[in-house]
Design a protein that fits this description.
Strand 3 and strand 4 form a beta hairpin. Helices cover about 10% and strands about 30% of the residues. The relative contact order is 0.25.
Amino acid sequence: MSGTVTAVSSNGEYSFTKPNRDSVRLLAGLGVEGDVHAGVTVKHRSRVAQDPTQPNLRQVHLIHEELFAEVAGEGFEVAPGELGENITTRGIDLLGLPVGTLLRLGDSAVLEVTGLRNPCLQIDNFRDGLLKQVVGRDEAGNIVRKAGIMSVVREGGVVRPGDTIETTLPSGPHRPLDRV
């Protein structure tokens, strides 16, 4: 399975959205260089409040561009970086990947998928009603989270819009993504 990077975003300050960049540099074991969420231990405020010594399994946030088209159909205009993601993709079913999938981006960067983003109320602060579009329930009543996936940087490198993304699935059995 392969896809494309359509946008890259980062922000050195805490804010919900992240401005688009010409490129981002991924640092092994840390995340996006200069991004407020980069680090070995958790940087998301809610996680820091729980336990600041937890490992940072949320170094790099990816969202599939296809989500923007889906929510546009419900009247919500969303652009890359506006939901706080670092990398916007096209052509890969991010939500269907198992834990441990490796994503090779561009020439050298490698991410390891750790889990699903757990959408929060900040999404409704951004666009009222949007949270219900990115979190719902399936026919069996299970929670479905659609606001992207989280990952850690295994190998660093520069990532730019237009870069290819190649996936390598872990050896089985595959573990489905859960929130991290």
